[in-house]
Amino acid sequence: MFSQDEEEGLIAKWNSVVKPTDLVIHVGDFCDSGAVDLMEYRKRLNGNIVLVKGNHDSLPDDVYNAVFSSVCEELVIKELDLIFRHCPNPNDGTSFRQVYGHEHIEGGLFCPMDSKTSFCACVMRHNGFPTSLSDILVGLEKRQ
Question: Which of 34, 45, 98, 126 is deepest in the core (most CB within 10 A)?
């Protein structure tokens, strides 16, 4: 998916904003190659990463559990009225605002989403940088 130079750039951008002790919620499609690549790539990234599995995260669960702080299909933070998932779901029946990662480009399959209640946190939509929780919340508040 990415060239070696692109991967190195993504790693550098990640580590420029994520500190070793930061908690990161990764909204899926972390690595779509084998377990060895996944483990090597993860070792080079700062932070304690919670993986919300994406459609390309298809290795056995024990592989993901060995390299991430936690692994899940969705993550709800009730206090912030947020649900983190890989694919957006505008008709999920919840009142949570959603943070998702599946839409790699503007105007993807699920766009336009309800911009008042959703935020795409895919690094490809943010110049290769992970998005902070405060930036997500500010982005959602601006849309209200």
Answer: 98
The per-residue pLDDT for range 26-35, each reduced to its tens digit, is 999 998 788 9
Residue pair 78/58 in contact (Cβ under 8 Å)? The answer is: no
Contact 82, 96 (CB under 8 A): yes
pLDDT tens, residue by residue, 62-107:
999 999 999 999 999 999 999 999 998 877 888 899 999 987 665 5
Question: 48: how many CB neighbours lie within 10 A of its CB?
Answer: 13
Contact 25, 119 (CB under 8 A): no
Q: CA-based angle 38:63:98, to the nearest 5?
A: 75
Q: How many Å separate Cα 118 from the centre of its chain?
A: 13
Among 44, 39, 45, 49, CA closest to 84:
49
What's the pTM?
Answer: 0.89
**Looking at domain 4-142, what is its CATH homologous superfamily?**
Metallo-dependent phosphatases (3.60.21.10)
